[in-house]
Amino acid sequence: MQHANRRAAWTVSDLRADPSWVFEIDDRARRDLTAAVRAAADPAKTMLDYRQDDFDLGSAWPVIAASLREVRDGTGFAILRGMPRDGLTADEFELLTWAIGLHAGVARPQGKASPFMTAVRNAGTVYRTGKGRGYSSNADLDFHTDSADIVLLTCYNVAKSGGMSMVSSSVTAHEVMLSERPDLAELLHQPHYFSRQQEQAADEAPFYPNPVYDQRDGLLFSKWNRNRLRSAQAIDGVPAMTARQHEALDLLDEILRRPAVMHSMYLRPGDMQILNNHVTLHSRTEFQDHEDPALRRCLFRLWLAPPDGVALPESWRPSYRSVEPGTVRGGIVGQAYDAARRAFEIRQAGDLGMRT
Asked: Can you give the pTM of this predicted structure?
């Protein structure tokens, strides 16, 4: 299909020729962000107590807003460089990440316990298990999407070695597959079954159906996580995959890692990576950490539902619950929120003019 946003179908050479997906925070904007966090920080507050208007992001906000538009309407991802990492503690940097999220969308839960902010660091998790999560391991990750419209990742510390970030356009990968093996590309538009990694709510099955690709309003959408598909094959009630389905998914993963398709980069301290989960897939190499706990790799991750999100395919509903634009959707949904989390969600949606 012809994608309505042709810039989403990029190659590595396209990114090198046009680096408009890279944004830079200047000295004044860094000062504004530091002042905003220090003026608002209150040790008596939890993150859920803060409001969008507690943080005046000053001259930094137009640059951040431009990067978000690039994620929605352009390549589907952006790098924002120069956040004030050196002038902030890890707690202050985390709060800054949260403050940007409050301006950009409604935070979505990333696990059954409903954490809205995740520290991405090695906690010894075994990734390739029925309940493994990549963010808490140091493993080499499969290419995947997260369960939200946007994932925002800020870098505080880098690893001693490894931890390279990779991003590929799922639109480009689909076009390559169509040109090489249209018979296999067609299979990716059929339902596949993904494990909830033992984080389902009482009203949810331990797995859900979702095609790897689907369309709506001239746009192509992708949703892919091989680890969750592999885990689902061990769950009662999940249909066994066919040899041709395996062949199609193997080809997809191979295309995503081709040098012309896969963009590789190391995030630096103070970088923010923003990804549109509907048109990109991302991965990371294995990493080795520093011995000193204060130096170990640490990033902060937010999953966001933006107020200007597009309508999703109907086939996304089992995962996202809502597919309508301008609604709070995505994340590990269906779990029982406590009163504070639910109050935050309703309040933040109201601040952004969204529907819950």
From this structure: 0.92
